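To close the section, here is one more complete example, presented without commentary so you can practise reading it yourself. The ligand is pyridoxal-5'-phosphate.
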Amino acid sequence: MADKTFPLTGFGSVAIHGGHQEDTLSSHLTPIFASSIFTFDTAEQGMRRFANEEPGYIYSRWGNPSFTDTENAICALESFGLKNSDGTPLALKAFLHASGQAAMTTLFLANLQQGDKLISHLALYGGTYELLTKILAPTGVETIIIDLRDLNITEDTLKKNPDIKWMHLETPANPTIQCVDIDALTKLAHKYGVGVSVDNTFATPYLQQPFKYDVDFVIHSTTKFLNGHGTSIGGVLIGRDLEKMNTKITKWFRLLGGNASPFDAYLLRMGIKTIELRMERHCANAMKVARYLQAHAAIEKVFYTGLESHPDFETSKRQMKHPGPMLSFEVGGGINNGKKFINALQMCTRAVSLGTTDTLISHPASMSHSSVPKEERLKSGISDGLIRMSVGIENIEDILADFEQALKNL
Ligand SMILES: *Cc1c(COP(=O)(O)O)cnc(C)c1O
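Output:
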């Protein structure tokens, strides 16, 4: 058996080996524990498990070995190389959910109650915006949306609204790749006793580790780059306050019932193994696509934080290893040329979502953000002609050749 104390020094090694528990059959990969219940040898053992006096599984809505391995692998990556102020390694706990939306539901419902306010910014995933405004609002939790890139306005708002209990950040954000300063905002929020969560879906822990800046929770739609292959929907909620994770968050997770399935947990665990290789290639390709588009006469605007023209170039550089795999752009001639371009693509895939091995192209105004009011949408920079791209890991020559032929006849 491998020595579990052997220190893994590389992120890629942790992505491959992290979180694996030996089982009695010495499985190389964590099996898919397709079982809703786990048995007790005796009534007394069942009682001890319920009382949390003995480790062991009971019921898969509460936990399942396929979840545990994947959760522990994700914790190992989000805390990779991070330490507490006393020098001990940062310990995290995670709950795997059926979707990113389910993970956010547990996050918000467990941390906020009637009368509390939440502060966030304009450029949010469409589903997040709707969750806050349609599901959370009727429970009596109001969302205040401001430009969190302006720290003065942010502090002013925190000062004037003592009911603000939570700050939710998404960086980089959909689809204009806006970035907010995690470090500065977390310091401000904590100064006013406000909890902070970060949606790290676009960046993954390989590019950005929000816990480095003392945030309280990180969520992911694991559907995207963590899974990496588009094989399952999933989400994860990760926290650093272990006491809270083991009590209130555990309770809410179990009662809301948004748990993952063992098969999806398995697919996710397999996808995570190659995250370092994938992200390096996604990012290298994205940089080349951004430069190509910026130089192309048919393209009006490119939003990519790897370009100095992006207003958040500095913020992205400070907190991310690379500017990331996502970009968006406007084709000259507006929505009609945009559609013509999308329809002419031969290899790149016309689909929403992001984070698969193939390059995905979508039109936010009519797809992911169609439920956001037009005025709000325009305010967050999502024009009618904006095209979003999740740059894949194909060979760059083929991606650029597909773009070249599709742009030629506009
Ligand atoms: C996709 C996505 C979500 C929602 O996740 P699901 O897995 O679709 O429920 C949340 N945040 C971001 C940034 C996303 O891209």
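Once you have examined the tokens, check your reading against these statements. The domain at 11-272 is CATH 3.40.640.10 (Aspartate Aminotransferase; domain 2). The chain has two domains: 11-272, 275-407.
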